[in-house]
Write a sequence for this structure.
């Protein structure tokens, strides 16, 4: 949202209301992105958020790694590992390969690549709209 409106500050409340997210969740993400230098937070009555750099220079894969540091795809990926079959299971290898492929694909894009022009964004769509699913190779 901040990337789509570089000329003005966006508030936490505005983000939460637009995307129907809890204010607390948005604050948590904003704190992380501010601490990491992705967002600039301006305090005060007329404060808000904006990107610190051009969206073309913000790598999508790096952003996902930053906001999702724990891709626990299976029980054995976590600590503690309570999986009863992890000693002989062959699933972690393919799952790691899939995760690396997923992140490598995201590395090819910037935040700018994901942005809509303001005229293209009409707001969140109702849940009863058909959802676009993944395109799976057959």
């Amino acid at each position: 949202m901040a990337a789509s409106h570089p000329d003005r500050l966006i508030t936490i409340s505005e983000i939460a209301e637009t995307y129907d997210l809890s204010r607390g969740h948005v604050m948590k993400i904003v704190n992380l992105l501010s601490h990491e230098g992705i967002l600039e937070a301006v305090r005060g009555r007329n404060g808000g958020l904006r990107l610190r750099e051009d969206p073309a220079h913000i790598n999508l894969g790096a952003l996902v790694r930053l906001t999702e540091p724990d891709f626990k795809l299976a029980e054995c990926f976590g600590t503690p590992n309570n999986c009863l079959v992890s000693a002989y299971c062959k699933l972690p290898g393919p799952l790691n390969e899939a995760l690396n492929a997923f992140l490598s694909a995201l590395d090819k894009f910037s935040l700018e690549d994901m942005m809509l022009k303001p005229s293209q964004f009409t707001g969140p769509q109702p849940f009863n709209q058909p959802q676009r699913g993944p395109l799976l190779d057959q």
Observations:
- The mean pLDDT is 86.
- The chain is about 35% helix and 5% strand.
